[in-house]
Amino acid sequence: MWPLDPPSRTGEETYAICISLVRQFGEEKRKTKLINAIEKVKESSQKFRDSTFSGNLHDLQSSDFQIPEVDGKDAVRWLYVNGMVRKGGPCRIIYDELMAKPADERCPLCGHGIVRQLDHVMPKSKFPTLCVDPLNLVPACGDCNTVKGDYGATCAEDTLLHPYVDRIDSERWLQARVIHEEIVRLEFFTLPPAGWDDLLTSRVHHHFELLKLGSLYAVQANRTLANIRQILTAQFRAGGETMVRDYLASEAHTRLAVQRNGWEGVTYHALASDEAFVRGAFLD
Ligand SMILES: [Zn+2]
Questions:
Q1: Ligand 1 centre distance from Cα of residue 220 (Å)
Q2: Helix 198-210 and helix 213-256: axis angle, to 10°?
Q3: Which of 27, 97, 117, 264 has its CA at a distance of 20 to 30 angstroms from the CA of residue 223?
Q4: How far is the CA of 141 from the centre of ligand 1 (A)?
Q5: pLDDT tens digits, 154-206
Q6: pTM for the whole thing?
Q7: 115: CA distance to ligand 1 center in Å?
């Protein structure tokens, strides 16, 4: 949703580094099995890359992404948990590089939370050959990672946005409307700009729904509304609706310049554009 520069290392390179410190264990000979799987990993990584860029992730079958003779849970533990997440692990430096990608630590999936972990685009439980592939690892906040869980798309329209690949932030697609009830509140929704095709429109809407971004933004926006009520009241008394509108528009402008689809800028823009609101609907 919020774009990041794609990682430079391939899945095959990262896999080779991750297994570099794996030891042989008795009859398991785990290192031999992992070394023997390098060609399989290379093939998987290429297939995943091709499908990512062609929009066909929903066609990938879990059975094609297993490490031969290695249980999937063991592969994830040896490669991802011990090789990449563990401090001192051979791929920890790559983990840290990926975690540092978002400017100001903002989660690229929601544009709000703080990056806390790496999310596997294709779940590691079902696609172990991709468990340390950088293209499959997206820094995310805990909420997005938890809500997404082991989600896998079953059709192109339900494929979540990929921050390394999808570039949609040059246009405004997030909108909010003011709801005038006993307490004024905001409601968020996606509105595709002219020129988007049906597939992109569906994907953005699905991403927004699956990650529950509407309620996330509404909670934040309604807190903001409560926090600015006092200054809006003072401005209304000093300069009427014009002063209120100008203030809100200015706040929207400066925020939207930083994040075109950030909930903060969209909130101020929605408030500035609502006639009933600027005429005093916020007054107690
Ligand atoms: Zn998030």
A1: 14
A2: 110
A3: 117
A4: 4
A5: 999 999 999 999 989 889 999 999 999 988 999 999 999 999 999 999 999 99
A6: 0.92
A7: 7
